[in-house]
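Before relying on records like the one below, remember that each one covers exactly one chain. Contacts with other chains, cofactors or solvent are not represented anywhere in the record.
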Amino acid sequence: MSILPIVDATADAARISAAAVDGYVVWTTEDGAPVLQTAISTGRPVVVHGGPAAAGAGVVGIDNRAAARAIGRLVFAGARVPAVLSLPLTGAREAAVVAGPEPHEVSFPVTRERLLGFAEAARDVGFAWADVLVAACSTNDAREAQTMAVELVSRARRPDALAAMSDELASGALRALDAAGLQVPSQVAVTGWDGAVVSRTLGITTVAQSMREQGAACAHHVLSGTSTDFGDQWQIIERASTFPPPPSCA
């Protein structure tokens, strides 16, 4: 097995095509990524975890949109000011707070599908997506998430429900809320994503998915061409960071 870090589109393309490998597992990237197209052009087996879908490559991952809609309905129910703590929106990886960003303009498919699901969840419980603040982080980093969460809770209309796109981001948000003296979930409800160890340690309600099994499925796809549908292989684990759902959202 060879691990090829992606650092620069031009240099990476040459390294990818020259690599002495039998196939490629590409970890979640953005639409039109040169590295993915280069891997496909070699004619070797290619599979992408999380997307994007591309001719000549398989895709392994859950239905992010459905999962986001489900956990969004849980965390946004009963809220007055819902917000989202997001993974990067585009390859520029700019940290910013945006009101109701257009999901179809987001180039990372995992982020895009989750935003679509959160937008549906917001509308399901009575909010206009244009009124929902999305704090996009440049990386999946708890420290940056803490900084972005501080910015959110410092606003006059402080969010009282925060849906994070990873448990790592949610853990940073919890630190920000604790430092601000805000109680979870009575003042701010929080959810994460992935079912990571930190979610159990901190009591974060989360979308659990088996990354290990998905990684193994990626390897099997490249080695033997077999495919596994993980679309519905996720579940919401409710913990102390949210209230139980009302009957209408059960």
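The mean pLDDT is 93.
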